[in-house]
Design a protein that fits this description.
- The protein has ten helices and four strands; from the N terminus they run βαβαββαααααααα.
- The protein has 232 residues and is of the alpha+beta class.
- It has two domains: 117 residues, Glutaredoxin, CATH 3.40.30; 104 residues, Glutathione S-transferase Yfyf (Class Pi), Chain A, domain 2, CATH 1.20.1050.10.
- It has a four-stranded mixed sheet with strand order 2-1-3-4, with helices on one face.
- Strand 1, helix 1 and strand 2 form a beta-alpha-beta unit.
- The two termini are 29 Å apart.
- The mean pLDDT is 94.
């Protein structure tokens, strides 16, 4: 059994996609980030960076005590190694998956996140910041489109945790001011991943929580006003 501390953000969806693909038994524990649930002491014990998602694995492969994991990329890698699924066993295949997994957590996620912030949430419109992050998101879409012109999936022939990491960050492409028609290889891949039963089931699991706004006016003060004092 996996306890999943979750909210229906792109990073949250990554983990439900994996869990639904593999059929691992899991329980969602909602963490309403707009209400400040991520600062509760019990959650900080397993996610010291006060971010979702995080998991507790009640049956780790070493047979020991329950094990917690935070950071979405680390969770995907942990679960792939635990199950032997969606991560190639060979050196070169594993290398490719890790490259694109880190590309997402170090590039696409942060840049698209800043795009979301300055275009959607910032209290004042700052043209330079908006243009900067919309253009950088566009560049990253181009990198991904070129890659997907050479392979069926992001890291090669087979579907992997790299695809699961990237897909949820492409879902809000319209909010990011990106047109998938300009990226035909990316569009083909995006539609294929969207049609997977695991993807459909994962997003259905998040739907009840998504009926509430992720970012309220009060929530903006929580999400965008954090300091070292608040983070601890």
């Amino acid at each position: 059994m996996i306890d999943l501390y979750y909210w229906p953000t792109p990073n949250g969806h990554k983990v439900t996609m994996f869990l639904e693909e593999t059929g691992i038994s899991y329980r969602i524990i909602p963490v309403d980030i707009s209400a400040g649930d991520q600062f509760k002491p019990d959650f900080l014990e397993i996610s010291p960076n006060n971010r979702i998602p995080a998991i507790i694995d009640h049956a780790p492969t070493d047979g020991g005590a329950p094990l917690s994991v935070f950071e979405s990329g680390a969770i995907l890698l942990y679960l792939a190694e635990k199950t032997g699924r969606f991560m190639p066993a060979d050196l070169r295949g594993r290398k490719s998956v890790l490259e694109w997994l880190f590309w997402q957590v170090g590039g696409l996620g942060p840049m698209a996140g800043q795009n979301h912030h300055f275009v959607q949430y910032a209290p004042e419109r700052i043209p330079y910041a908006m243009e900067r992050y919309v253009k950088e998101t566009n560049r990253l879409y181009g990198v991904l489109d070129t890659r997907l012109g050479r392979s069926a999936h992001v890291a090669g022939t087979d579907y992997s945790i790299a695809d699961m990491a990237i897909y949820p960050w492409i879902v809000p492409h319209q909010r990011q001011q990106q047109d998938l028609a300009n990226f035909p290889n990316l569009k083909r891949w995006f539609e294929a991943v969207a049609a997977r039963p695991g993807t459909v089931a994962a997003y259905a699991k998040g739907a009840p929580f998504g009926s509430r706004p992720t970012v309220t006016e009060d929530g903006k003060k929580i999400l965008f006003g954090q300091t070292a004092r608040r983070a601890g």
